[in-house]
């Protein structure tokens, strides 16, 4: 259903009733459920085939709501003031007496919160509905994230009643996830807000060690994966491979993420390009090297997981 007041009314009715709705955000399309409804939250895991140890991000519709749900340290507050609404998720100590389902928290005493940018946020608020919503990406677990309503339909069309079509997402990669403990911050997932943009606000951002970190569950496994095998940092195209290029090169790419080497454009097109190349039916998708600066860190993170053994 196209985005607009009628769609927001329908979505609000369904969400209040405990049903799932797919919604566009500035990062990717999300699969939303009312965060206080145990069975709706459980339904998200069911519909996506998501492992129960992978916790969900709680999406709030006003930044002020965060302090009802979590302990907000001065550092957390300064990041919210600067980056919300926006593609920054903060993992904070959870308040004990909150009216949220524990089904989406994987047994953790922390809560991941973000305040998204999307027209439906104001649409819901004007209906007197302020969620909060849990909302992972609206794809089958482990598959490529959706950046158009059509992508959502391909993965989940037979499992959900409503997809709001807000056109292609402006960003294209998921939010940056940071855990905050007092005045310390640790990067759990690189994402749409680059570390360079965070640096002026965080004096020493540490990088979570994935292999030993119990605080970032659900981030180890193969993810964002096409059906084809993925070969990274490819400097040639082998027989029978599909090639995803970046910048100008002598290799004839099937698709180029960005001929002008714009990392913003590459992030924006990444998932749609992977889906299109996968549909060519080749056994392997070879991908040109992407620089590890700015949004390139998030792009390379997603590609590494797309290439991991399934
Ligand atoms: P997504 O599947 O894009 O919604 O990813 C949500 C990400 O947030 C996952 O990688 C989770 O591991 C992470 N996450 C959610 N809640 C928490 C939490 N309480 N502590 C640490 N990471 C979390
Ligand atoms: Mg996801």
**Radius of gyration, taken over Cα atoms and rounded to an integer in Å:** 19 Å
Give the termini separation.
Answer: 34 Å
Into which percentage range does the β-strand content fall?
A: 15-25%
Structure class: alpha/beta
The CATH superfamily of the largest domain bears the name DHBP synthase
Number of helices: 9
User: Largest sheet, described in full?
Assistant: 10 strands, mixed
CATH fold title of the largest domain: DHBP synthase
**What is the level-2 CATH architecture name of the largest domain?**
Alpha-Beta Complex
Strand/helix succession = HEEHEHHEEHEHEEEHEEEEHEH
Give the helix proportion (percent range). 25-40%
Mean pLDDT over the residues: 93
Across the major sheet, the strand order is 7-1-2-6-3-5-4-8-9-10
Distinct small molecules bound, one entry per kind: adenosine monophosphate, magnesium ion
Q: What is the domain tally?
A: 2
How many strand units?
A: 14
Oligomeric state, counting identical vs distinct chains: single chain
Shape: globular
Q: Low-confidence segments, ≥5 residues, pLDDT <50?
A: none
């Amino acid at each position: 259903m196209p985005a607009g007041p009628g769609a927001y009314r329908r979505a609000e009715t369904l969400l209040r009733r405990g049903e799932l709705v797919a919604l566009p955000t500035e990062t990717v399309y999300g699969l939303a459920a009312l965060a206080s409804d145990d069975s709706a939250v459980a339904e998200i895991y069911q519909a996506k085939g998501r492992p129960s140890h992978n916790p969900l991000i709680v999406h709030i519709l006003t930044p002020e709501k965060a302090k009802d749900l979590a302990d907000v340290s001065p550092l957390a507050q300064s990041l919210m003031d600067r980056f919300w609404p926006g593609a920054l998720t903060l993992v904070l100590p959870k308040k004990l007496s909150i009216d949220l389902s524990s089904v989406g928290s994987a047994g953790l005493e922390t809560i991941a919160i973000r305040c998204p940018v999307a027209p439906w946020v104001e649409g819901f608020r004007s209906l007197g509905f302020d969620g909060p919503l849990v909302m992972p990406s609206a794809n089958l677990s482990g598959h490529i994230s959706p950046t158009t309503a059509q992508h959502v339909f391909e993965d989940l069309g037979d499992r959900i009643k409503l997809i709001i079509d807000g056109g292609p997402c402006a960003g294209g990669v998921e939010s940056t996830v940071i855990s905050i403990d007092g005045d310390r911050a640790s990067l759990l997932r690189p994402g749409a807000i680059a570390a360079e943009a965070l640096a002026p606000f965080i004096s020493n951002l540490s990088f979570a060690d994935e292999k030993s970190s119990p605080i970032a569950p659900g981030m180890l496994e193969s993810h964002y994966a096409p059906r084809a095998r993925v070969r990274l940092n490819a400097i040639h195209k082998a027989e029978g491979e599909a090639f995803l290029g970046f910048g100008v090169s002598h290799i004839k790419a099937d698709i180029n993420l960005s001929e002008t080497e714009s990392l913003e454009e590459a992030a924006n097109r990444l998932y749609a390009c992977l889906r299109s190349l996968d549909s060519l039916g080749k056994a392997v998708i070879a991908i040109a090297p992407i620089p590890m600066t700015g949004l390139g860190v998030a792009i390379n993170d997603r590609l590494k997981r797309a290439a991991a053994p399934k």
